[in-house]
Specification:
The chain is an alpha/beta fold and 236 residues long. Helices cover 31% and strands 29% of the residues. Magnesium ion binds next to helix 1.
Length: 236
């Protein structure tokens, strides 16, 4: 944590709880989680299946609303945002990478990557798109249909799509869950590099100790609470 003390906090959560109503039962899934994230850090959220990792990620990124607690994202109160402000946040400041890539199969790599720019009704800067594709090693596949790509290549396209809007924070839920170990290392290396070079904060959920080794610190969840937070000792 000491190295991070000078860097601005981009995301802060205080006393988050999340209950789900299942039939007539109230299921308490997140039970008072407070955490913060600074610019350019790469953090892994780990813990057993069902411990609330994905739910916490969805709360932090505004996909789900907490039952109670506060979230400040890039200096703004996430829970007080109007739908138009949430759309702006998603269009400009945050991006997602999921396990299942969520690409449009009958589109090319290029068409998939520019989708967020078109949704935000912005002009496509071709040079910028090319640079983003190069940064994930997919420039040579620019005009390929994504359905013709391997899983690892598709995930690199999904990362390019996440990067193309120059976000401040990327949320990833088991981004390497479907990948072999070589592609896993590729994806983790890209995350590490974009956190270091572009100062993008990356918050990933992972089951893999090997993936977590690429990040700066690990938030361990157990039964909806933070069990501990540990710094990763850098091996390089
Ligand atoms: N929309 C929902 N309605 C009811 N229960 C839910 C809902 N979403 C999650 N849960 C429950 O909350 C608990 C935590 O789920 P969550 O998906 O956050 O776990 P996880 O740590 O990501 O697990 P995994 O490692 O298997 O992905 C689980 O018991 C799950 O069934
Ligand atoms: Mg999950």
């Amino acid at each position: 944590m000491k190295n991070n003390s000078q860097k601005p906090i981009v995301l802060e959560a205080k006393g988050l709880t999340k209950d789900f109503l299942v039939g007539d039962r109230r299921l308490s899934v997140i039970k008072g989680v407070s955490c913060s994230f600074v610019q350019g850090e790469f953090v892994s959220i780990m813990g057993p299946s069902g411990s609330g990792k994905s739910t916490l990620l969805y709360l932090l990124s505004g996909i789900e609303k907490p039952t109670s607690g506060q979230i400040y994202i890039l200096g703004k109160d996430l829970l007080a945002m109007k739908p138009s402000q949430l759309s702006d946040l998603r269009a400009n400041d945050i991006s997602f990478v999921f396990q299942s890539y969520n690409l449009i199969n009958h589109f090319t790599v290029y068409e998939n990557v520019i989708t967020p720019i078109l949704i935000a009704k912005k002009r496509v800067d071709e040079d910028h798109v090319d640079k983003v594709l190069m940064s994930v090693g997919m420039f040579d596949f620019k005009n390929s249909l994504v359905s013709h790509l391997s899983g690892g290549e598709q995930q690199r396209v999904a990362i390019a799509r996440a990067l193309v809007t120059d976000p401040k924070i990327i949320f990833a839920d088991e981004a390497t869950g479907n990948l072999d170990s070589r592609s896993m290392v590729d994806v983790m290396s890209i995350f590490r590099r974009i956190a270091n070079q572009k100062k993008i904060t990356i918050i990933q959920v992972t089951h893999s100790e090997r993936c977590a080794q690429f990040s700066d610190r690990v938030i361990n969840l157990l039964d909806g609470k933070i069990r501990n937070i540990s710094d990763i000792k850098k091996f390089l």
